[in-house]
Amino acid sequence: MDSEEYIEAIRTGTERVEEIQRFTRIDNHCVADLVSGVQDTQNDYDDDPAPRPVSRIDLSNIIKRFHTRAGTLTKTVSEELSAFEAGAQILRVAHQPNFLPYRGLMGQFVLLNTTAKELQMQDTGNVTQLYFIVDHDTARNYRFRTAHFPDPTQNEGVAPISVTELINRKDTVMTAIDAPSSDTVNKWVKNIGDYATVHNSKLAPSHPLGIHPDTIDQRKEQLQTLLQTAQECARSMAEFNAIVLSRIVNGWWNLPTLFLPLSECRSLLRPHYQYMLRRWGKIRELAASTIELFEGKGFAFSTNLKARLDKVPFWYICPSCQSRNPVNNKSGNLDIESECCGCGVHLSRSFGTWTAPDLGAELDQITPRTILDDLLDMIGFNIDGGVGYQSSLEHVIIAHSLATQLGWTPPPELYWRPYGYDLTPTEVLADEALKGSTRPHIQNPERALETVFTGRATIGYNILFNGCQNLRDRLTAHFDSDTTVNKPLATRSQLQ
Question: What number is the average pLDDT over the span 295-318?
């Protein structure tokens, strides 16, 4: 659906997604065409009603603790929190806490704010903006530990800014990774500053996109303060990444978005996890048939979802090293009896059966797989709408189809492609190389421009070249305009 249809769906309380923008791998089918074929399944679980959504007061306490630690419990955030506690509609964005986040992720918060303001103007009642910090994943996620500064002088077209200490801890959960040291933060800031300074120095002094060196130095100091403050506040790498994001979104941009770490919600979600485990046989059956239907209509999944359906839908976290381990299904029993993939210690734990799951009191050692996570939108948090990338569409197709068949109400979703350019010295160098100008030091201009265009350049790139407030202003103008949401922030012709 486009943005106007999305607003109308939330305003009128539409029960299910009627249309989502076309996605290239669906061929000529929109999601509504696909989902419509699986919407009439009989609900066989009327005698096992879903538990009530998690208490907003309990969630509010978690949110308040995060913002207090981050130093972002601003007046705007406090007012949003009061509205949330009072029962306002929830618009959410869900994402892992990426390292030095990129324009594509930053744009989600501006889109969320734009949508909420539009709903408020249409007198739909109070609307709150919520960010689900998906921090119960592992360090295996590449963008949790690496950011990219576009650099056409490098063979790969990017200069990686990395948390090198994590190279051998990829199966460790994010919240168990230590926050970076002050020395590491200083190294990151120095590298980002050096890349920006070198690229800027290669432009002619009179070039209109050139930046005064003093301006870059001032913005470098802002970046240093941002990261150093987060480093001093954070207890883990996941929290460091989330605090950096919050201090930009809530601090610099003064947006009201509430940050909710999902890792701290697990004990509150015990009845919801156990409820879905009791129904997992039906969920797995419906998911498999839904995938077959989609594939028959031309949809090509990028991940092997069928294989995942044979897995127990949650992980067990090793108490010794905090590595994530799969749980076994033996003749209907849910247990783990194996060596830890991280430290080799023997793990032995029973979680009951499918019909009578017992996750016990150790919810800190449990983390859900993707399908369980997606379905919590409906029965755990009862959200009213969400925004995201089109690249996450396949997860939503499955989750919304399952929810409809299980008698739940999937919320409307709005998707955005974060395409565009930022008009920086780096992009000028890459663009001139592609035009055939003499630039012997340029190695991979295509990859550098692709990184910018797809919105994957680190926020450090935007802060030093354009200023972070400038990024918010451009994104706001982009979403507030009458053009389609997929229009780039700038076009190649503007680099000429």
Answer: 76
Q: Which residue has the tokens 């077959």?
A: 292
Structure tokens of 57?
A: 């007061």
Determine contact, residues 100/159, Cβ cutoff 8 Å: no
347 forms beta bridges with: 338
Q: What is the pTM of this model?
A: 0.89
CA-nearest of 94, 97, 163, 161 to 130 is: 94
Question: For residue 341, which of 134, 171, 185 has the smallest C-alpha distance?
Answer: 171
Closest alpha carbon to 256 in 127, 374, 138, 373: 127
- CA 84 – CA 130 distance, rounded (Å): 9
> What does the longest C-alpha to C-alpha distance in the chain come to?
74
Q: Are 152 and 426 in contact, with CB atoms under 8 Å apart?
A: yes
- Arithmetic mean of pLDDT, 440-459: 88
Q: How far apart are CA 336 and CA 314, in angstroms?
A: 11
Q: Report the range of poorest mean pLDDT among 216-225, 249-258, 366-375.
A: 366-375
Q: How much helix, strand and coil, in percent to the nearest 5, is found in the chain? A: 50, 15, 35
Residue 494 clears pLDDT 50, i.e. is over it: no
Q: Which of 322, 34, 290 is nearest to 166 (CA)?
A: 322
Residue 335 confidence class, pLDDT cut points 50, 70, 90: confident
* Residue tagged 């360090």 (tokens): 139
In this predicted structure, the answer to whether residue 184 has a pLDDT above a threshold of 90 is: yes
17-51 pLDDT tens trace: 333 332 223 233 333 333 444 444 444 445 678 89
**Ranges assigned E (strand) in 96-200:** 127-133, 146-150, 158-162
Nearest by Cα to 131 from 62, 69, 75, 82: 62
Report how far residue 294's alpha carbon sits from residue 29's, in angstroms, rounded to the nearest whole number: 10
pLDDT > 80? residue 12: no
71 burial level (CB within 10 Å; 0-12, 13-18, 19+): middle
Q: Over the range 124-158, which residues count as b (16 or more CB within 10 Å of their CB) and which as e?
A: beebbbbbbbbbbbbbebebbbbbbbbbbbbeebb
List Cβ neighbours of 320 (8 Å cut-off, separation of 6 or more).
340, 343, 345
Residue type, 249: V
Percent of the chain residues past pLDDT 90, beyond the cut: 46
C-alpha–C-alpha distance, residues 53 and 31, integer Å: 27
Q: What pLDDT was estimated at residue 171?
A: 86
